[in-house]
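Troubleshooting: if your tokenizer reports a length mismatch, compare your output against this known-good record of 298 residues.
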Amino acid sequence: MAFYTMKDTRAFLESIGMPGGDLYELPTSEKRFPDGGQYRFEVPGIQGPGPMKALLEALDEYGIQIHRVTQTKGIMFLTDDEIKTMVEYARKWKVQLVLACGPRATTDTSASVKTEEGQRMGYRLRGQEQVARGIEEIRRAAAFGVRGFLIYDEGLLWALNEARKSGYIPADCEFKVSAHSGHGNPCSAHVLETLGADSINPVRDIQLQMLASMRAAIDVPIDLHTENPKSSGGFIRHYEVPDFIRVAAPVYLKTGGSVAANHSYDTTEKEARQRAKQIVLVKRMIDTYYPEAVVSPK
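Known-good structure output:
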């Protein structure tokens, strides 16, 4: 009978360029954004131009810059004029606008995603018609100048990367993979990177040692929830943010989620200003516990 050891398996994983396990020593990441920054701020769940403007104006009052505003409900829920206005605000405030791909399991005709077992499929697409519609979503927004997109399905990500390479959609489009895809290990993150992901949002409750191993396996930015809506646990991780940056740089710090009830929540203008306050609270943690951390310029 053959005798197997975990040591052999760890050595095999290392031989294919992956960590042998979670990195409990929490090594410091030497990777950076192209501008030398270790971290950037992102505010998700901003579903339209009104809340986007309220958020950015409130941040101006606080004297804090952010780098990314993400709409999570779907491009198909926005009018052409709303998209144009959001692009205008993004240019004015010099932030990246990321719009979510609308077709996904929760809006498909199948109700399986709403069952206990069906939840495992996340927001992935069912059928090639949904893939075609997803590509149409990206083409529509790209025509108005949007270049950042939130993707929930690995197959769609691959198809969009091929479209980007072939020139069917603009070559400077960037794809961010949602936490709702359910990835939380280095090998999965590596697969997403090879499929064309420009940043990856792991599961919201990923632990530091797991995060360290993921960073060792990929080069693209990692998007991390510093807090969460009630529907995904409602937990707040502000005290972990300095270690997020040190261990996983380059990172996008997704902040303000605790204001929302769920992922596709329609944030009001008042609540958008509350999200701005959450950025202030996270920035205080960084300034107090990791003051040498380098933020990307605006």
